[in-house]
Design goal:
alpha/beta; nine-stranded mixed sheet; one-carbon metabolism; NAD(P)-bd_dom_sf; eight-stranded mixed sheet
């Protein structure tokens, strides 16, 4: 468990790895601002009127330099912010330090344990006796999951007197979540219900979390309205320009000091991220093969000149495996890894952590784990004496081993979507416009995100005459 929170001279809470990195983080944020024109335009347009004044916003999004620009945009237009990361490896410690020193409460550091990760989410949701946040910026849904599970446990405890039993489930991470909720019930049996009552709405940016939210809407258990920014035009069309490894193939190359050119690379899944993964690997000189369950996507891959096979067809021949399928569990199993070539590289660019079966690898009898550098490890099997190189412990490779999404276009569009959704949700909070449902990003906000970029990118729109418009 993390040690108690610290405070800045002004009293703002934080828990980061090293506050001495704040100066370097500040320099990097300044560079990123130039590459994120939509958020800077948002500050210019909305800063004077302070439309988010009085709003409490909790963020659960990778604590990186681009995220820092989003946080400071929200504070620049009036919000008070508490933030945690949405992945144990994705935090850039210099970004966290700079934000903690200057702008918002931050609870994030690179290399959190799973227990520390959920502790950080708790802290980001903790706004004191007045309940929780008014709004949540989400990337994966973990903060929402904690609230939903907390409310369910509180209601059961009130009705039956029974505390949650973490031992009743097998998943170690779920056990941690239930333990947090159980311990909290003894000090405040209405904590999560108070959070639910104050919480107005959420913006969510991950497809698999959105699917989960739609399921809750269908069965009537969704506790608050959500704007799905993941499917906005400015998100889907421009977010995926970055490819699987947004700084190019650096996540693989820096991690292993191996060249990609001439290697056989398997991309598991040919959705939007998979297409870009394949393109990035092809550009680096790899021979790319994809695996796919969808016939339309398989045909698209073939039309791009990419061979489509099953993982079993190529598992013993390929050099690099990149898992891109969103919510799949155990797409790459320990049996697959045992059949791979010696020193085959395995990485995950899907947004969730179960696509590579790490628990089975970690518990395999006699397996030997050798750490080359942080988040680059070779796992050697005792019977074959050969091993696989797993990046970022099977978690998001671009955030664990590279530098995440580039600021230009990608994060600028994505985070501008969040900013505009948060403004919309806050401004409409008393109108009843948004019910406890999942809403697509309104078209006028999508167009606003695009327009916020144009002036700073030197574009001038042609205006229709009335005759042409008619």
């Amino acid at each position: 468990m993390a040690s108690p929170v610290e405070r800045t001279a002004s009293g703002r809470e934080y828990k980061v790895k090293d506050m001495s990195q704040a100066y370097f983080g500040r320099l990097q944020i300044g560079l990123a601002e130039v590459q994120m024109p939509a958020l800077m335009s948002c500050r210019t347009e909305f800063g004077p009127s302070q439309p988010l004044k009085g709003a409490r916003i909790t963020g659960s999004v990778h604590m990186t330099i681009p995220t820092a620009v989003l946080i400071e945009t929200l504070t620049a237009v009036g919000a008070e912010v508490r933030w945690c990361s949405s992945n144990t490896f994705s935090t850039q410690d210099h970004a966290a330090a700079a934000i903690a020193r200057n702008s918002a409460a931050v609870f994030a550091w690179k290399g959190e344990t799973t227990q520390e990760y959920w502790w950080c989410i708790e802290r980001a949701l903790d706004w004191g006796p007045g309940g929780g946040p008014d709004l949540i910026v989400s990337d994966g849904g973990d903060a929402m999951l904690l609230i939903h599970e907390g409310v369910k446990a509180e209601e059961a405890y009130e009705n039956t007197g029974n505390l949650p039993d973490p031992a009743s489930i097998d998943n170690p991470e779920s056990q941690i979540v239930l333990t947090i909720i159980r311990d909290g019930l003894e000090t405040d049996p209405k904590r999560y219900r108070k959070i639910k009552e104050r919480l107005i709405e959420v913006s969510e940016a991950i497809a698999t979390a959105v699917e989960w939210l739609y399921r809750m809407q269908a069965n009537g258990t969704l506790l608050f309205p959500v704007i799905n920014v993941n499917d906005s035009v400015t998100e889907t069309k421009f977010q995926n320009l970055c490819g699987c490894l947004p700084s190019g193939p650096d996540g693989l190359m820096t991690a292993t000091d191996l060249e990609i050119a001439g290697k056989v690379a398997v991309v598991c899944g040919y959705g939007d991220v998979g297409k870009d993964s394949a393109a990035a690997l092809k550009k680096a000189g790899a021979c790319v093969i994809v695996t796919e369950v969808n016939p339309i996507r398989a045909l698209q891959a073939l039309m791009e000149g990419i061979l489509v096979l099953t993982l079993e067809d190529v598992v013993s021949e390929a050099d690099i495996f990149v898992v891109t399928a969103g919510s799949g569990k155990g797409i790459v199993t320990v049996d697959h890894m045992r059949k791979m070539k010696n020193n085959a590289i395995v990485g995950n660019i899907s947004p969730f952590d179960k696509a590579i079966d790490m628990p089975s690898l970690e518990s395999f009898p006699g397996v030997k784990r050798i750490t080359f550098n942080p988040q680059t490890e070779r796992w050697v099997f005792p019977d074959t004496k050969s091993g696989v190189i797993v990046l970022a412990e099977g978690r998001l490779v671009n955030l664990g081993r590279a530098t995440g999404h580039p600021c230009s276009v990608t994060s600028s569009c994505s985070f501008a979507n969040h900013a505009m959704a948060q403004l919309e949700l806050w401004m409409e909070r008393d109108t009843g416009k948004y019910e406890k449902k999942v809403y697509a990003m309104p078209k006028h906000l999508d167009e606003k995100v695009a327009s916020l970029h144009l002036g700073k990118l030197g574009a001038k729109l042609t205006k229709l005459s009335k005759e042409h418009a008619d």
